[in-house]
Amino acid sequence: MKTAVLGGGISGLSAGYYILRRFGKPFTIYEASPRVGGWIRSEWHKNQGFFFESGPRTIRPKGLPGANTLELVEELQLPIKPIPSSHASARNRMLYAKNQICMLPNSPKGLVSVVPPFSKPLYRALIHDLTTADSVVAKNQDESIYSFVQRRFGKEIADYAISPMICGICAGDAREISVRFLMESIFEHEQKYGGVLKGLLYSRFNDKYNALKDKIQVESNLYKRACKEKWAMYSLEDGLEQLPRSLRKYLTERNVNVQLNSKCHNLRFNGADKAVMSFKNTDVPVSHVVSSLPAYQLAQLTKAQHPSLSAQLLSIPYVDVVVVNLQYDNDQLLKHNGFGLLVPPVENLPVLGIIFDSCCFDMAGNTVITVMMGGHWFDKWFGQQPPPSQKELRDVAQQQVRRILGIMEDPKFSRVHTLHKCIPQYTVGHKRRVQGIREYIKSYKLPLSLCGAAYDGVGINDVILSARNQVDNLLEI
Ligand SMILES: Cc1cc2nc3c(=O)[nH]c(=O)nc-3n(C[C@H](O)[C@H](O)[C@H](O)COP(=O)(O)OP(=O)(O)OC[C@H]3O[C@@H](n4cnc5c(N)ncnc54)[C@H](O)[C@@H]3O)c2cc1C
């Protein structure tokens, strides 16, 4: 009997890659749908020279998680499209607030002047942090990012800087998202030094932090190149879907069976070294399961035998996102150059943000933008019965594009995707919740490892590293 992987998204395929690298034996990855990649989906229109991404579009090369992904990308020999930090799309971040597009400051000069939508110079928020007493929450207790930032930097920063940023990261509401999980180092700065700025200053001179930097084991020439050329982010020549596609090819060429159209319906365990996965027509016994499934999916599979585990998995909430890709023949439509803009939730608009794809990458004379809508507020805007049609969703997106960007013409081509339960929400207490889930698995000695976006981080780098860590742990059992 052998190990099996559930899910052929990027985390399941990465788990497969690391299992192969460590154990070198054949095994199977079971994927419910007819394709690999999960939420990563690129659509090329080669004749017209543009592409759409309906899920992720860029990866950051920074830190250990970034270096780890670049090592994988290098092994797969994928052609990279880097964006250097000097590029407008890396430097210019915008908000749409108070009926205008506001360029966020990207130099120290911006700290001393009043930059809309803020009513005071941003240095005042820093003074607020320096002069605010230590944490009012009990030691090590979690709190929402919104309340943390409001306490330390004031309400305006919480509303106009942090809340839209959380929309950009996980389409979530900063009033619910855990500061301890998503901004752990900042949270720890307050816990240790009594303030975020104080912590940042101390840690600059603190050997422990510098030593941590040196600990990153760089196996990748690509990572060295990324550091030297100061990449801020990157994509791949044929869009990000090239990553899971190439990974699948790499694995199958090395005798790993990637079985599509294979939805697992039930998972039961029989002792510490036996699991039985049930598919439509067959039961498959294995000695260990690495699950990369969304937590709510795994909850379904384990409900009959482990209802308590299932309930804990279900307590990780997910949100729905509407992604509308729009293409226009004219490349002079965007009046601002940058990555795109975010819309603070206080503006009470159905849109989370608009990405300027054709500013980030060459789109051969086309303007390409992507409108993200819904997220935490999906039900409020789109929850009616019957659900809105694709045309209705596209109309809402276009209305917002007219209002925010002043683009009056109709797009030449568009695509609408409603991504149900696509982003897990790391709400207050997430770290403890995940610990509880993993402790349950350990205490019942279940031959089960968990990776994927539900647990250890929401970005592509995080899920690949999560897969690697889980497979590293396999060596010890
Ligand atoms: C709109 C959007 C934009 C994003 N933008 C970025 C970005 O720019 N940069 C970034 O780094 N990250 C971004 N992310 C996050 C990133 O895409 C995800 O973290 C990552 O793709 C999650 O991969 P995964 O393998 O963990 O999960 P998934 O992609 O959900 O894969 C899980 C797989 O399991 C399969 N499955 C489910 N149930 C079963 C079953 N019962 N049996 C067998 N198989 C099953 C599914 O079909 C799926 O293929 C974005 C996400 C979204 C939704």
Automatic annotation (TrEMBL):
GO terms for MF: oxygen-dependent protoporphyrinogen oxidase activity
User: Which Pfam families does this chain map to?
Assistant: Amino_oxidase
Entry's EC annotation = 1.3.3.4
Keywords noted in UniProt: FAD, Flavoprotein, Heme biosynthesis, Oxidoreductase, Porphyrin biosynthesis
An example GO BP is:
protoporphyrinogen IX biosynthetic process
User: What sort of enzyme, by top EC class, is this?
Assistant: oxidoreductase
Q: Where in the cell is it found?
A: Mitochondrion inner membrane
Specify the protein name: Protoporphyrinogen oxidase
UniProt pathway: Porphyrin-containing compound metabolism; protoporphyrin-IX biosynthesis; protoporphyrin-IX from protoporphyrinogen-IX: step 1/1
Cofactor annotation remark = Binds 1 FAD per subunit.
Question: Which cofactor does this sequence's record say it needs?
Answer: FAD
- Origin superkingdom: Eukaryota
The residue ranges of the Amine oxidase domain are 10-474
Which transformation does this protein catalyse, written as a reaction? Answer: protoporphyrinogen IX + 3 O2 = protoporphyrin IX + 3 H2O2
Annotated Gene Ontology cellular components are: mitochondrial inner membrane
Could you tell me which species this protein originates from?
Answer: Drosophila albomicans
Briefly, what is this protein's role? Answer: Catalyzes the 6-electron oxidation of protoporphyrinogen-IX to form protoporphyrin-IX.
The UniProt similarity line reads: Belongs to the protoporphyrinogen/coproporphyrinogen oxidase family. Protoporphyrinogen oxidase subfamily.
